[in-house]
Design a protein that fits this description.
The chain is α/β, with parallel strands linked by helices. It has a single domain, classed as Alpha-Beta Complex (YbaK protein). About 25% of the residues lie in helices and about 25% in strands. It is built from 5 helices and 8 strands; from the N terminus they run αβαββαβαβββαβ. Strand 2 and strand 3 form a beta hairpin. The radius of gyration is 14 Å and the shape is globular. It binds 5'-O-(N-(L-cysteinyl)-sulfamoyl)adenosine (5CA).
Length: about 150
């Protein structure tokens, strides 16, 4: 039940609710810290897992929502990986459970077009053991991003 969610997952549940996304947060049996583990935990292909990654561009942070089967072409996009402390400071969550919404500081979002090839995608819900499913176009809608090639 939602009342039993840890604080970090409850924050994601509340953020989703405020955005009008109907999603049930699921606790995985084992670790879902990586896209591969999350895919195995929910029985989805790794391409249907949303990686929520913080990068910086000219020092300014951006949130990239990337298909689990893609690797961001950071060089082409002029991006650098944010370190774990910066990610925590900006989002309020620890790596392995970074959700796509509900961050302390709302960041500009870049959205991987390949996520739209799936009917449903799964994203982290604030902890390495909590995920939620969402239609990718719903996630796209609430981010206000324009889908693009990030790989
Ligand atoms: N819960 C899973 C599936 S949704 C998850 O959060 N996957 S993830 O891909 O969004 O988050 C893990 C990612 O964090 C890895 O792809 C890895 O590239 C990145 N990462 C791991 N350690 C660090 C670190 N020290 N600094 C910056 N990024 C890191």
């Amino acid at each position: 039940m939602s009342a039993e969610l840890p604080t970090s997952a409850a924050r994601v549940r509340d953020a989703l609710g405020e955005l009008g996304i109907e999603a049930t947060i699921v606790e995985t049996g084992g670790s879902a810290r990586t896209a591969e583990e999350a895919a195995a935990a929910v029985g989805a292909g790794v391409g249907a897992i949303v990686k929520s990654l913080v990068f910086t561009r000219n020092g300014e942070p951006e949130l990239l929502l990337v298909s689990g089967s893609n690797r961001v072409d950071a060089k082409r996009l002029g991006l650098e990986r944010a370190d774990a402390d910066r990610v925590r400071e900006l989002t309020g969550f620890a790596i392995g459970g970074i959700p796509p919404v509900g961050h302390l500081t709302p960041l500009p979002v870049r959205f991987d077009e390949d996520l739209l090839h799936h009917a449903i995608v799964w994203a982290a819900a604030g902890t390495p053991r909590h995920v939620f499913a969402v239609a990718p176009n719903e996630l796209l809608r609430v981010t206000g991003a324009t889908p693009e090639r990030l790989a």
